[in-house]
């Protein structure tokens, strides 16, 4: 019995480290304008950290600001996160201005790298025709003052300084932010942040309670932005989106002024859709749906006005991009699938896109051409058909055409004997007017001679 107890204790001592789950901290980067796509990225990154039961997720933030609705959605997602979310304004030279300031204040912990800035978040309504800023009315300003103070109060941070970010459009560096109780850590890199944040308590509850961060010795897992994230980050730059919109309109006008080429209007339509997506009014799924609708328009255009494959190629590309975007939001929350399954879905998307392109390019085009052909019935159907004389035409008699007997009359009044081939050239009521096929051929041959 003693030997058994000793053996169990021995195994527990040596196997305990391997049985214990390794600590993991996820690190992800958010850069550029805050849009609906940014929310999708936050959601996906936080969801991956939640699924792995990570000790925390560090968001490397560098943003000049962006849309208020997207910012509020991001803050709500951080509040509902089941893992601590640490906002780290990084690298040196980065900023968390405007909407980025609110996101930082809604986080469980805020850190800044040397040479970074935070603040300057007075709301504006846009720009006037002469390029000057349109100031937000007092009621809008008062709302955001109340909102930012509530975020600071909920996290025990400096409400007065938070208010000054709006009323004075104040921006501060990392030293001032730490001095005035806006942030908790100054760190030169992620490793230093891990070391300093270890043992700190979150400023905002996680799963309903304040958590002491246990980060020492944690494995760092970096979540890299996908290609579509990088592309969307690029086109959501307001300058890029505006250039795309302008060039798209020019291309459409050029296409309408030079009908028959179709290249300018095709490129113009794609540019305009990308510009609309870049303006940030859509999330990934809405943008994907918009691209699929554009693809269907291209396919139908190819069927109606064959362009030697131009619209087909454009439709295929936009369909594939749109379909992939449809499966981009939610970070695995709505789509509980593995990476392998998602890879299979991408193959299916490409296959279906190719089949659709082929169908509209060939099958649908043939159907439309068939419908466009004038229906041939009765008189129109008979003219041009060939038959055989079964009762001499002198000048009237009977002919057999497609197995049916018809009264017929020789057009020129000559006699056509039994067995001779004739062709219908006219109809008088139900009587066919015919000519000898042999005569017609001989005339054609004489002409050829």
TrEMBL record:
Give the primary localization class.
Answer: membrane
Per the UniProt entry, the signal peptide is: none
Membrane: is it a keyword of this entry? Answer: yes
| Chain ranges of the NfeD1b N-terminal domain | 25-178
**Which stretches make up the NfeD integral membrane domain?**
240-362
NfeD-like C-terminal domain location: 380-435
Q: Where do transmembrane segments lie in this chain? A: 239-257, 269-301, 307-327, 347-368
User: Which keywords describe this protein according to UniProt?
Assistant: Membrane, Transmembrane, Transmembrane helix
SUPFAM superfamilies for this protein? ClpP/crotonase (SSF52096), NfeD domain-like (SSF141322)
Q: Which domain of life is it from?
A: Archaea
Q: Where is this protein localized, as stated in its record? A: Membrane
**Which InterPro entries did the record assign?**
ClpP/crotonase-like_dom_sf, Membrane_assoc_protease, NA-bd_OB-fold, NfeD-like_C, NfeD1b_N, NfeD_membrane
Task: Give the membrane topology, semicolon-separated if more than one.
Answer: Multi-pass membrane protein
The record's Gene Ontology cellular component field reads: membrane
This chain belongs to the protein called: Nodulation protein NfeD
Please name the source species.
Thermococcus argininiproducens
């Amino acid at each position: 019995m003693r030997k058994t107890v000793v053996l169990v204790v021995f195994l527990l001592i040596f196997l305990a480290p391997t049985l214990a789950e390794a600590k993991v901290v996820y690190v992800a980067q958010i850069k550029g304008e805050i849009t609906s796509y940014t929310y999708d990225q936050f959601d996906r990154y936080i969801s991956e950290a939640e699924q792995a039961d990570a000790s925390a997720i560090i968001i490397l933030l560098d943003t000049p600001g962006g849309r208020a609705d997207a910012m509020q959605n991001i803050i709500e997602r951080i509040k509902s996160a089941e893992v601590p979310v640490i906002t780290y304004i990084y690298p040196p030279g980065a900023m968390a201005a405007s909407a980025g300031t609110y996101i930082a204040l809604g986080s469980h912990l805020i850190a800044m790298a040397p040479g970074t800035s935070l603040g300057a978040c007075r709301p504006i309504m846009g720009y006037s025709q002469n390029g000057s800023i349109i100031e937000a009315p007092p009621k809008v300003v008062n709302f955001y003052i109340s909102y930012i103070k509530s975020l600071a109060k909920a996290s025990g941070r400096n409400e007065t300084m938070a208010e000054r970010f709006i009323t004075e459009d104040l921006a501060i560096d990392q030293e001032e932010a730490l001095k005035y109780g806006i942030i908790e850590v100054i760190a030169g890199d992620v490793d230093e942040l891990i070391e300093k944040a270890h043992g700190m308590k979150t400023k905002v509850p996680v799963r309903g309670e304040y958590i002491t961060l246990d980060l020492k010795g944690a494995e760092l897992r970096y979540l890299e932005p996908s290609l579509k994230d990088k592309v969307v980050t690029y086109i959501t730059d307001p300058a890029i989106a505006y250039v795309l919109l302008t060039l798209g309109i020019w291309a459409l006008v050029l296409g309408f002024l030079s009908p028959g080429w179709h290249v300018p209007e095709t490129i113009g339509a794609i540019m305009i859709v990308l510009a609309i997506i870049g303006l940030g009014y859509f999330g990934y799924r809405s943008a994907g749906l918009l691209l699929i609708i554009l693809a269907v328009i291209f396919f139908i255009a190819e069927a109606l006005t064959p362009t030697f494959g131009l619209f087909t190629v454009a439709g295929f590309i936009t369909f594939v991009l749109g379909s992939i975007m449809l499966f981009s939001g939610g970070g695995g929350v709505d789509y509980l699938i593995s990476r392998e399954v998602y890879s299979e879905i991408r193959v299916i998307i490409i296959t279906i896109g190719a089949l659709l392109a082929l169908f509209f390019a060939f099958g649908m085009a043939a159907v439309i051409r068939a419908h466009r052909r004038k229906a041939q019935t009765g008189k129109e159907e008979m003219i041009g058909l060939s038959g055989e004389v079964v009762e001499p035409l002198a000048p009237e008699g009977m002919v057999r055409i497609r197995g049916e007997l018809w009264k017929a009359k020789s057009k020129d009044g000559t006699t056509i004997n039994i067995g001779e081939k004739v062709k219908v050239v006219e109809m008088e009521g139900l009587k066919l007017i015919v000519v000898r096929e042999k005569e017609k051929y001989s005339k054609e041959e004489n002409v050829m001679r």
